[in-house]
Amino acid sequence: MIGVGIIGFGTVGVGTYKILSQNSSLLTEKTGLEVKVIKIADIDLDRDRGIDIDRNILTKNAYEVIEDKDVDIVVELVGGITPAFDYITSAIKNKKWVVTANKALLAERGDEIFGLIEKENCEIGFEASVCGGIPVIRAIRDGLVGNKINYILGILNGTSNYILTKMTEEGVSFTDALKDAQILGYAEQDPTLDIEGIDAAHKLSILIRLAFHCPVTMADIITGGISKIEPIDIEFAKEFGYRIKLLGLAKEQDGLIEARVEPAMIPTTHPMSNVNGVYNAVYVIGDRAGPNLYYGKGAGADPTGSAVVSDIMDMAYRIRAKDLKARIPGFKNGVAMIRKGEATPVPFYMRITTEDRTGVLSKISGILSNYDISISTVIQKGRKEKGHVPIIMLTHEAVEKNLKMAKVEIDRLPFIKGESVHIRIEEGNL
Ligand code: HSE
Description:
This protein is of the alpha/beta class. Helices cover 36% and strands 24% of the residues. It has helices at residues 11-22, 24-31, 62-66, 84-93, 103-120, 136-143, 158-170, 174-183, 192-195, 198-212, 231-239, 301-320, 360-370, 400-412; strands spanning 2-7, 35-41, 58-59, 73-76, 97-100, 124-125, 149-155, 222-223, 242-253, 256-267, 279-286, 290-297, 337-338, 348-355, 375-380, 388-395, 421-425.
């Protein structure tokens, strides 16, 4: 019998416990293994969690889980950096196997944790840290092991995807869509981590380590959120055959990885453009397997519990087989490097609000051409807002630094109103 201890008995902890207890015979039938939850720690032992549980296995002290001799696998579901880091490192030093859903911790302190795993020669499972119920960690680590991966595109945050989907389908503002997401319980009262791309960047950093064996810090990932996206840009995107999504992108060129999370336009012909609502998806291109698409629920008790249980069972097999060596070579001393500085050129969408008078377009295109930016399409609609009209442009591939400098000059022109908008276009390597 393999003993499991859970630290943090919130949504995912309860989801995990329910799968292990309610599907216990199914798990044994499928794997021939017996796995049992032996101890659970949480600061709140009184809350009604809607389950029957032997209260003798509950404790307020996480170290009772970490130090219990019958616990083989410690599951950390507390989240955040402190005290989760101490729990995980203590468990590793105590020769326990560790499972975590903690993307922030792996993103912020991954080097220390993976270093310790190598040193102590044990294992950490983190399937639940990226895209909840989608077994994407296992797919990249095991399923695509024979491939050199050169491209990852992810919709990694369900809350942002819900908000953008609502804006796209119902034409509502960002603020109204966010309020709706909060009422439905998708977005937190402080939604910063989700809407500013930070949660997605945490997840992307884990995928980058795994796919490219590349040590990566949060500072290496260019990160932007969706709070400045306006319905008008979503509408114009549709007219050009694009949808706006918060995309996590990692692509390799000449051994250098470009990593970014930001709202971008993707063609409506790309499968990622149809990933809607709170769903997540990861599109990966391997040099042998070609493109793969993984799609599913990125959060919630059952989907995330499903991912935690997959790690537990995988470890249980290995504990039984006494296959106790760490399985993350290269995580610390990666084979690829993050690309610093300017990103590879891509096409851009630009929206400039201007007085409707002659000579405007030639001035704007003159500035763009000074910065080596060539325009592929221009449209101007008669949507007058107090005498102003939007000019929409798509550019050919351009260097973003140049585009930003051109934008500053354009925005200084006397007939321009407000700050112009630019959004990357990601064709998605179909
Ligand atoms: N808050 C995340 C999301 C789920 O909206 O996708 C947990 O990472």
